[in-house]
Queue: 2 jobs
Job 1
Amino acid sequence: MKTLSSFNLKNKTVLLRTDLNSNVVNGRVYLSERIRESVITIKELKKKKARVVVMAHQGRPSKSDFVSLRQHAKHLNKFVKVKFIEDITGKRARSAIKNLRAGEVLLLENIRFEKNEFHPEKGKNNKLIKRLAPMFDFYVNDAFSVCHRKQTSIVSFPKYLPGCAGRLLERELKALNKIKLKNTLYVLGGAKPEDDIKLLKGNKVLACGLFGQICLIAKGKKLGAQNKYLFNNGFVDDKLIKRLKKKLQNVRTPLDFAVKVNGKRKELKLNEFPVKYEIFDIGKDTIKNYVLEIKKAKSIYMKGPAGFSSDEKFSKGTVEILKAIAKNKGFSLIGGGHLSDTIKKYKINKKKFGHVSLSGGALLRYIAGEKLPGLEVLRGIVKLKGTKIMEN
Ligand code: 3PG
């Protein structure tokens, strides 16, 4: 795969797809490792005197973290000068792109605000491609964590523009090429259970986060308010429960949970549920039990937090599990934006892990042996602006 070193980008207009998707609480975007690390490629492109346009997403339509990239721009500006425009394909965005000077960087609005992001099948008739592709000389993909999505900014632009990997994507691929996960203990958490289910293939699994609660529901446990929360917010439906039921043989589930009562952490044993409180973390018995398993493991892969890790009262499960993994001498792979952020926030020594990836779902699919569309298209034969065919 080609990299930034393969091209002379001086004075070229470069479309950079990066992943700035971060934790959002009550509308506030937290400065994440993804934002911090994205600066590496941006700075290099700036230094190479490219005209850089950054494209990124935040959240998913209808979710509470589906917000503008204005705050991300503010965070980025702590490290590198970036202009932000609240537009994607309109006149304002196109004139800002045209007027960029060598070494300048422009961040467009949340790409998922544009419906065409979800319609790469429209090909050349996709508004994003029609209006924007002709304005660029190069496409750089630095978003390994989004490479599992068949979305326009990931799979279509590199069909019409010569493309290459950014430094973060390159770093992830180099690290993943070296890993060997055999007899691995999977610690699966986070809020995307449809991803976790892909790894239930006989390995031993410690379930936590929303995934742990959903596994319990699939085992027939009633959690009360948390059942409602999970179903009403689209984290789970009857179909997923039915699929999960058949795959739980090697899955260990939480023994207790921490709920929020008057803003405080309160721990409850599983037999005290159902309750009227929502769940925010695993409890101390679960932590103890999981840490014992982690001590015995030969290699470990952890994906997603064990609880609501951005709130200090509910970060205990995630932090204790990460610390236990850091102590294990076997190979460990950590995946997902939340875990990278927790490692940084709680000053856990990153060097103690085999590899800490910024990617959650994409990494999980990679491990499950699936092909990632974003990588396939970068590796493949790329159509140049609809006419010439070029080996990439
Ligand atoms: C992630 O957070 O894993 C990536 O940004 C992809 O987000 P998505 O699951 O909403 O596509």
Job 2
Amino acid sequence: MSALEIIQIPVMQDNYLYLIHDSASGDTAIVDPALEDPVVAELDKRGWRLTHILNTHHHWDHTGANLALKDRYGLTIIGPKAEADRIPGIDIQVDEGDSVMLGDHSADVYFVPGHTSGHIAYHFSGDTALFCGDTIFSLGCGRLFEGTPAQMWTSLQKLMALPDDTQLYCAHEYTAANGAFALSVEPNNRALTDRMDEVTALRADGKPTVPTTLAQEKATNPFLRPTSPEIQASVGMQGAPLADVFKEIRHRKDNF
Ligand code: ZN
Ligand code: FE
């Protein structure tokens, strides 16, 4: 079985769409298509035909081209069961414990509410690839539009249990702004200052900082680090329950 090909398509201000292609079967999915044209252009360039849409959550910048792409390709739309009524054109509703096939490649579905109430993530374990939508960003996490901090902390812990070498295909390029906040709560984290040097250089070159890895995020992302004594001290919550520390970090980022 050959590895999945994963193509990152930057659109609008800071969204990333991902094309996933299995060369053996020809199956090709787009994760969270905000727009139609950039997806069609990339497919035409490569001679691929779109067979699936994988949605992580209902926001328009993740589902905006669902119907147009379905019209054009007659594809199958897979999305979160808990948001099925808000996913345009959904054909298959999936939830935690379900798996999704792309050719012979299988993705496990994780239920990760917090940013929205029914958000899911797709983990292609054989390809060490996680499509986490707006749950984890590099150096950040999604805003809590529909879920509670406790829910989001539970969701993040689920994803943190995946292998450290997992590649995180986040849906936005927010790393530089996230990093400014991260430095404000953990200025002495050497892994973080090193990462920010790298991020600054990449962005100066117009290059993406995503995908990232779970290992890198565990070492640098404040939302995955409520155990950090430096962060706990920065937010005045030494020894507090981790869910409470997480809640305070999220609150401070919202007001940063
Ligand atoms: Zn969103
Ligand atoms: Fe988004």
